[in-house]
Structure formats: C-alpha cells, structure tokens
Design goal:
Blueprint lengths: L2 H28 L14 H19 L6 H18 L12 H31 L2 H22 L4
Length: 158
C-alpha cells in the first residue's frame, strides 16, 4: 500500500471512529433520551420510546400507501429508528418476571429482536426514498407482524 493510500485509509477509519463515537450524542439531539419520568406515572424510558414507535406505526399505516406522503413517512421512520436504537439498550420490564437463570437469554433475545426491527425500519426508509410504494407496503406489513410478535413475547399484555 502506497503512502497516499495509507493516509486515505487512516483518514477514512478516523472519520468512521469519530462518527461512531459521537453517534449517541447526535441521536440524543433529535430524540431526547428520557431520563426522568414524571412522578406518579408508571412509565419507563422504554415505554416512552415504544410509544414513539407505536405512534409511528399508526401514521405509517396510511402514509406508506400514498407516495405524496413519503416525505412525512421518512420523517416518522427516522424518529422510529432513533427510538428503537435507544429502546434496544434497555431491559424490558417483563425481564423481572423471568427466572434468574433465563433472564440473560431473554434480554439478549429482546435486544436481537430490536436490532431486527432497526434493520427493517431502515429497509422501509430506503424503499420510501426510492419511491417504491409496493416494497414500502410489504415492509410495513412485516413490521406490523414483528410488532405483534414482539409484544406477545416481551410484554405482559400492557
């Protein structure tokens, strides 16, 4: 590798490392990481992020069908991605009800499912950016199935 190629590679790696280092801070700018829940409410940070995702799903139910609304849909998906990224780092309340010996596996399964959600949301964003109504609708339907399966597995019916 010549000197110029090494410098370019070093610069690229440095830029990637800096981006990864500051990504959580950048995400916090858009979707604030809720740190305090108002007194008297039985809502956790994960509940707040999941609410953002659920509200987004409700909006997308109609907007992925109409290319004229794709700009709005993309904004909604961006907020959902950020909320899902934060939520994946949390422990679901239901984990407290799982036997001690199975809890780590439960939390790991939750996190993996949240990563799958993120991937699917990014696929939806790409379809919207391309103006592909058919793919956007298919991906939305898959997200709906994932939502239902996730709620069944990781919540206690709330």
């Amino acid at each position: 590798m010549n000197r110029c190629a090494r410098r370019t590679a070093f610069f690229s790696l440095s830029l990637a490392a800096a981006t990864l280092a500051f990504a959580p801070a950048l995400l916090q700018e858009e979707v604030k990481s809720p740190t305090a829940v108002p007194a008297g409410e039985d809502q956790t940070r994960i509940d707040q992020w999941m609410e953002t995702i659920e509200e987004g799903m409700e909006t997308l139910r109609k907007s992925v069908r109409d290319p004229a609304l794709f700009g709005e849909s993309i904004e909604v998906v961006e907020k959902m991605v950020q909320a899902a990224a934060w939520a994946r780092t949390e422990t679901p309340k239901m984990a407290a009800n799982v036997a001690e010996g199975e809890r780590a596996a439960f939390v790991r399964a939750y996190r993996k499912e949240m990563i799958e959600l993120l991937v699917e949301l990014l696929r939806l964003e790409a379809a919207l950016l391309e103006g592909n109504t058919e793919d956007a609708q298919k991906i939305y339907k898959n997200l709906k199935k994932m939502e239902e399966a996730g709620h069944e597995r990781f919540t206690d019916g709330e």
